[in-house]
Amino acid sequence: MHALIVVSHPDPDSLTHAVATQIAAGISANDGSTAELADLDAEGFDPRFNRADLQGHHRNAPFPADVLAEQARLDRADAVVLVFPVYWWGMPALLKGWIDRVFSNGWAYDDSSGQGVLKKLGHLPVHLVGLGGADDRTWQKRGYTGAMKIQIETGIFDYCGAPVRSSTLLLETDTGDARAHLQTARSLGQRIAGNADVPGH
């Protein structure tokens, strides 16, 4: 199987990047499995949904080349893993903008039939890995775990039909033991490689 790991953090030496690298290592440890790291910051992806994106959304023009390139990377993948720090109890703007632009009408879903939304990504398993500074007690007390589940798993991926196979929160990243998070990440990669649904393409 082949996984696309999308990481969003401006510092290549961050724990976020280290976690993504360990997930890739865990996937690659499985015979025949490969992982591609997509570093949105280093690649200079523009997260701003622009007029050309809107024209594509309305099917008045093709989508921009950078959007088509990202969709092609996803089309080659048997699973996608999003690795990101939690900013203000959500995704960083760069990653959210990547989703805004790439998970487009006609590719991720189709709402033009008049018969409701056609979900087009049922073949693409999703794994979410968020890194947060607060402890689990704070997350539960404030209801942030449920809020993120609704916002990301239901609001984005269920709308497109992409099944969320795992959702992992690595907490207390500012004060906890980074080694434990890296071990968790590598184990997650191994599980992804061993259990991911592989579409027939």
List keywords for this structure.
alpha/beta, 44% helix, 18% strand, five-stranded parallel β-sheet, Rossmann fold, 201 residues
How would you explain this protein's 3D organization?
With 201 residues, the protein is of the alpha/beta class. The protein has a single domain, classed as Flavodoxin domain (Rossmann fold), CATH 3.40.50. It has eight helices and seven strands, in the order E-H-E-H-H-H-E-H-E-E-E-H-H-E-H. The protein has helices at residues 15-28, 40-43, 51-57, 65-75, 93-102, 136-142, 144-160, 178-195; strands at 2-7, 34-39, 79-85, 109-110, 118-119, 126-131, 164-170. The strands form two sheets. A five-stranded parallel beta sheet has the order 2-1-3-6-7, sandwiched between helices. Strands 4-5 form a two-stranded antiparallel ribbon. Strand 1, helix 1 (15-28) and strand 2 (34-39) form a beta-alpha-beta unit. Helix 1 packs parallel to helix 8. The N and C termini lie close together (11 Å).
